[in-house]
Amino acid sequence: MNKEKTYTVETFAQDQIIFNEGDESKYAYLVQSGSVEIFRIVNNNHVIVNKIKQGELFGEMGIVSSAPRVASAKASEKTRLIKFDQNDVLEDLKKSPSIVNALTHLLINRFEILDNELREQHGTDMFMKVAYLLELIDDSQNDKHIVSYKTLINRAKQLLNATKVEVDNAVNSLSKLSLINVETIIDEETKQKRQLIQLLNPDKLTTVAQTYYETMSKKNQERKIGEVAFLDLTDLANELQVSEERILNRIRSGDIPADLIYFHKASIEKWLSKKTRESFD
């Protein structure tokens, strides 16, 4: 006899953070009661991305794609959430019809492309600002060319309105370019861990970073805008490698939700202008 699977239910107080942007994506959540606000901090401004109501699911994109959280979530009021881990979600996807499974992954890929384009457009600018800030801090303190990671984050927040995630991304890029090295040490007095950034080639830090920045900016400008946000029926059929009729049948049966279907406003209005109401009866 199969034992019925049980899920964890967690309660969050009003304004309590559920997860932060940049966190590892471990769980998806279903709102059992209450509501949730999805938000991002952009240029030090609190930007609401979505509001999740009772009966709705959120956080599933990250655990399916194994990507870090692209936004933060907090309880808008006292909220009870049913928590699903990655295995739960992937297992449910495997039970879905193959076309729905493929469509889910297609939508996730499209979402990631759009999100990455937004991040790269802003991220390359922040990368250069962090590089100059590192040089400025280094020039002002010592000849060892070692900067406290905590100091960099605090200065970046104050001077650049940067988030920790943005600083982390810039530091990671500078490290890959072999311009800096990040080391974790134990403070002898406090016995606490500290992260230090060593500038490996301080004289060339901003010069090499500038070259990288210009290359990335050029790539972003040359990127095809052809990675569109919407697909027509033919495009979707080609992506999924099935017939258009099969997709239409899935829409009729409800396997593909109707709220995923969009019409181009100008095109549909032109088409409707040639039709009469009787043609829809």
Task: Characterise the protein shown here.
The structure is a single chain. The protein is 46% helix and 21% strand. About 2% of the residues have low confidence. It has a 4-stranded antiparallel β-sheet with strand order 1-8-3-6. The chain is an alpha+beta fold and 281 residues long. The chain folds into 3 domains: 88 residues, Jelly Rolls; 64 residues, no CATH class; 108 residues, Arc Repressor Mutant, subunit A (Orthogonal Bundle), CATH 1.10.10.10.
Quick summary:
The protein is an alpha+beta fold and 281 residues long. The protein contains 9 helices and 11 strands.
How are the SSEs placed, and which strands pair?
Layout: E1 8-12, E2 17-19, E3 27-33, E4 36-42, E5 45-52, E6 57-58, H1 60-65, E7 72-75, E8 79-85, H2 86-95, H3 98-141, E9 146-148, H4 149-160, H5 164-176, E10 180-186, E11 193-199, H6 205-222, H7 233-240, H8 244-253, H9 265-272
Antiparallel strand pairs: 1-8, 2-7, 3-6, 3-8, 4-5, 4-7, 9-11, 10-11
Q: What characterizes the major β-sheet?
A: 4 strands, antiparallel
C-alpha termini separation = 52 Å
Q: Architecture of the largest domain, CATH level 2?
A: Orthogonal Bundle
- The percent range for strand residues is 15-25%
